[in-house]
Design brief:
There is one protein chain. A seven-stranded mixed β-sheet has the order 1-7-6-2-5-4-3, covered by helices on one side. The two termini are 22 Å apart. It contains four helices and seven strands. α1 packs across α2. β4, α3 and β5 form a beta-alpha-beta unit. It has 163 residues and is an alpha/beta fold.
Length: 163
Amino acid sequence: MERTTVPDARRGSLVSASSQHTHALGRAIGRAAVPGTLLALRGPLGAGKTQLAKGVAAGLDVPTVVNSPTFVLMNEHVGRLRLYHVDAYRLGDPEEAVAAGLLDERELEGVTVVEWADRLDGWLPLDRLEIALAPGSRASERLIRWEAGGPIHARLADVLDWP
């Protein structure tokens, strides 16, 4: 993962066997999420970022459809906690995210999931759960690596330690 590491950061990895498994991982994260949770998702097109985000929404009891917000940059969903689903794919540089109000203090009351977080390098706080997804050896597999900065996100990383 290309980022400045946090001392004593919690790291791990696993292989997700299917999109349903990736969704279930997201759901577990959503169930354990607390206000101020920030998930920074990285990976190529089709790696499972949106599937993981949909799982987080399910874990937050979000009743609305969660899709990639590519054309609006951010969608806000109401659930147990408010979900801010950001897609930074179309941003030219991180300053655009700040100018568009995608990163602000209101997110401290909810859960923020940022797809294409690498587009915001240097602008996201180190206190986050960063998750990198990549295609596995089989078409349905995904390699998932994570690094958690801060105590809240380290506790969230614990839910990723199940098979």
